[in-house]
User: Fold this.
Amino acid sequence: GWEKGRLDLNGELSEKLVVLKEGYIRLGESQFRLHGRFDTKTPQRPEKVEANLTGVLGLAQASHWGGLGRPPLTGNLDLTASVRGALANPQWTVSAEGAGLRPSEGALAPGSLDLRGSGNLEGFQLSHLWWHSSQGDLSLEGGWSRKTPAKGTLSGRAMDLGALGKFLRLPEFNGVRGTLKAQVEGPRDPA
Assistant:
């Protein structure tokens, strides 16, 4: 369906470049500011892009945009992202933070999320993804590239295993806390 919102753009356009001095978009709970530049290809250099985005993303709304019937998390994330370099292989960074996020799984307590990552068209590096709640702390770091399989390290501290017990229908896990350390490796990219 359609959503009401607002879009404001202020920029310059020529045959050689596009400069977005400021862009603003608001849809429901989500709103973003964008500024950047695109330089066309010249004999001396390839097409080049440079952009920065900041904003707030409503997770329930983003889940709806993604076609999910039930959002895995509700609440808002503060986002910051950038992209720079040749258009054929730009470098990007992303960070997201949110507090008071509510998982849709009823056995899980609300918590906070912190994510930092970077990459390009050949792969990405997840510097960290942290989840903190009254049920403990989880962290994931790792990466993927076209040349190597996805790899990561998953860690958990002071984890309340009661939530896992509810999910697995094992009441023996109630009141038990644990620590987790796992190395995960995915398949290679078939391309």
Q: What stands out?
A: The mean pLDDT is 91. The two ends are 35 Å apart (CA to CA). The chain has two helices and twelve strands. The helical segments are 59-65, 162-168.
